[in-house]
Design goal:
This protein has 113 residues and is an all-alpha fold. The chain is 98% helix and 0% strand.
Length: 113
């Protein structure tokens, strides 16, 4: 009777060991699948980093282009403003000259009377 129980326990233990081996095999497959998934995720992360760097570079390039355009526009306004100030000074000088001539003419007209 005791031998039968021991034999039964050994058979149960052998069956449990087979189940454990199957479970370990399944776990190994799961781990392998997880490794593949992680490897794929790493590739995705690298791809995202590359994409972000490319986007950052493109945005820097575009902002530089906008800055250069704004600097050009600013330069044009500065030139136009400087030109307008120079024109204004010239016009003011012409007006002053005309005022002097008018004064001279008015003086000569008064003397002629």
């Amino acid at each position: 009777m005791m031998e039968e129980k021991i034999m039964q326990l050994l058979l149960d233990l052998s069956a449990d060991m087979r189940d454990v081996k199957k479970d370990i095999g399944g776990l190994k497959e799961d781990v392998g699948g997880l490794k593949e998934d992680v490897s794929g995720l790493k590739e995705d992360v690298v791809s995202l980093k590359t994409g972000l760097n490319d986007l950052r570079t493109e945005m820097d390039r575009r902002f530089d282009k906008v800055d250069r355009t704004l600097e050009g526009i600013g330069g044009q306004f500065e030139h136009q403003t400087a030109q307008r100030l120079a024109d204004r000074k010239e016009i003011d000088a012409d007006i002053s000259s005309i005022k002097v001539r008018l004064f001279d003419l008015e003086t000569k007209m008064k003397q002629a009377e």
